[in-house]
Structure formats: C-alpha cells, structure tokens
Amino acid sequence: MSRIHSKETAPEITFRKLIHRAGFRYRLHDKTLPGKPDLILKKYNTVVFIHGCFWHGHQNCRRGNKPKTNKKYWNAKIDRNIARDKENRIKLEGAGWRIFTVWECELKDLDGVLKKFETFIKSVLGKKICRK
Ligand SMILES: [Zn+2]
To answer: Given 34, 53, 59, 65, which is the most exposed site by the fewest CB atoms within 10 A?
Structure first.
C-alpha cells in the first residue's frame, strides 16, 4: 500500500481538528475497511478520505498537475491510485458506507470545508441507514 496512508499528514490533522471542534467524533484509520479510510464516523455511517491532490489525481486542480518530467512514470503511478480509490469506493458503498472526500486544496477554506461536511452529514441523516 502507498505511504500516503501509513502516516498522518498535515491535511489530515487539519481536517480532524476542524470537525472535532465542531463536535464530531470519529475513529482513525480502520484497517478492516477497504482503503483504510482516514476517519470513520460510525454514528453517521460515514467514512472520510483526506486526499493529497497530487497523489490522488485531483481533476482540474493546480496541485493535481503531474510533473512535466518522467510523465510516464507519474501517470502510471497516479492512475493506479485513482483506480484503487475507485475500487475502494465501490466496496465501501457496497457495504453501505457513505464516503466524504476532502481534497488537500479545499483546506485553504476551512469554513467552506466544514459547511460542506455538515451538509453531507445532514444528507446522511435524511437517508435511511442501511449498514448492519
Ligand atoms: Zn486539489
């Protein structure tokens, strides 16, 4: 597995603190779940991934741009990450989890990210929770 998930990153800590202050409680890095989500909010049936724009190939994002040199190498590497993210999403959704993805670049606007997260949680609460 990539080193992205093996240790805590600054964006991860930033987001964690943000939602913790807003009263959300979570568990970290559940290794039993596909893709080892960064945060798990069981109460809301939700897992959170905090993605580095570059490593996870954020579309239309400056930070997601691949370097001009070694293009082939980076394309292959990042395409693999994107494919793996997609597989994990399918598995998690299949198991009834809802997935919230935070991109590194979104953390420039903490209020905006928190609002987006709260809106997401509200939409979860509005739906029937189907996970056993
Ligand atoms: Zn981005």
So the answer is: 59
